[in-house]
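Memo to structure team: turn this sequence into structure tokens by end of day. - J.P.
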Amino acid sequence: MNQMCSKKMKEALPHWLPFYKHTDCDDEVRRLLLTMSASTIDRELRQYKVNYYRRKRTGTKPGKLLKNIIPIKPFDYNITKPGFAEADTVAHCGDSLSGQFIWSLTFTDTYSGWTNNRGIWGKNALAVLDAIADIEEELPFELIGFNCDNGSEFLNHHLVNYFSSDERQKKQVNFTRSRAYRKNDNCHVEQKNWTHVRDLFGYERFEEKEMVAIMNNIYKNYHNVLHNFFVPQVKLLHKTRIGSKYKRVYSKPQTPYQRLIECKDVPGETKEQLKAKYETLNPFELREKIEANMKLIVFYLNNKDNNYEASLSIA
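Reply from structure team:
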């Protein structure tokens, strides 16, 4: 289950356990697993937890041309329906931002937490536009608003035209940007940069253009599907300041799929399509496919002096 926290794991176990086929997991063990509290899960797993060292690096370059056209409007935390998305980019640059390398685009729905990723070669405006258009085509809801940081890959005429009603058959999207140097304005997608990108691909440098196709196969067919349908997320309901501290109250952990199913603003036809897809999925099989494809990436990194086709055929 990729070391999810105990509160999320408690809510996820009913969805994962039916697919677990280990011979030592009999009915009594399953009953005990489903009745464990979050604190008991923490206590049992304490000896197995692994500490990660998170390095901080940014590749954001400010886009100045359209700041007067694209308004500053951080999303309201009380959004009650899907369609208001946040986007950000992550650099797979290793220890240096010089030269060309692969970036990941993260696209998150504020209400449900539904997240899609795409790998792109370089961080140019057209590559980001193509990735956003591809993501929008497979969203299970209509895009209403789009919020991003102040990077030049977002603040450009290509994206402004794409979201305008003149350039699209669909309804116009409300395009806004965050305040500069205020990551909390885009907090929903910022946290996904770790869970959906860094936790999967780490901090290695990906400077082979052919790896974009491998990454997108992992993102589109396995990793995003696993997180959207089987990995619960918590949402901040409200916070109260008490002296110099804040008391935060969070929702019960739910998967993005569950939040969409329970939302009254999602059409019944869309819910039926989501339920039909859910019935075809197995989280353990998705994990196995992710691990198999990650071995292909490792193999390709170790054989990057050879041609791509030969490495792929051997793997």
